[in-house]
Amino acid sequence: MTAPLSIVIPTLNSADRIGPCLGALTAGVFDGLIREVILVDAASEDAIDRIAEITGAKLSISPKGRGAQLAHGATEAIGEWILFLHADTILQPGWIDRVRTHIDRHPDKAGYFDLSFDSEDQMAGLTAAWANWRSRLFALPYGDQALLISTQLYKEVGGHPAIPLMEDVALARALGRRRLLSLKTKVITSAARYQAEGWTNRGWRNLITLLRYRLGTPPEKLVACYEKR
Asked: Which residues contact residue 54 at a Cβ distance below 8 angstroms, ignoring those fewer than 6 apart?
């Protein structure tokens, strides 16, 4: 039986932090679940090409911008299902069974993981709890929670828009509540940005950015302000 899952990971100077992410995928390869791993790079100045060669991942070059990179990776994926994964997000033991169960039982729905951080700070737990609550209540998981979706459903809803910010929110809204399910298992993602900027500052920035996007501010304007901070 052909492995059903393509992994798509956008990268931009990610070589120094992608190791744990790729390492967690090894079990899925040996289990016969993962068909391919695609690193979609945007003009990195690091050794991502060497990492792709060593790990057997496919390296594909795309215009810069997470939305554009994710959409580009999806066009090259040959699996019946795609798992979109950030380079600093790590799948946890048990993820294979959860993914297989979702594929078998919910072929018409997308699945997302619960969020946790690689930090023992109390604010890490509170921030993750908020993210998981938001995901369930508003059907708005973010990209750092990873997204499992069939290639067919991805095409039906139009995929990721080629925008520089909020591409994950745009796709979640296109899917809607009825086509989004929690996989009821967690990923661990990097807390580096929160630690550098402050948990409260980063959290408020994310929330304000989301609200401005929902009120109609173009993503291009949002990312310009976002990168100035």
From this structure: none
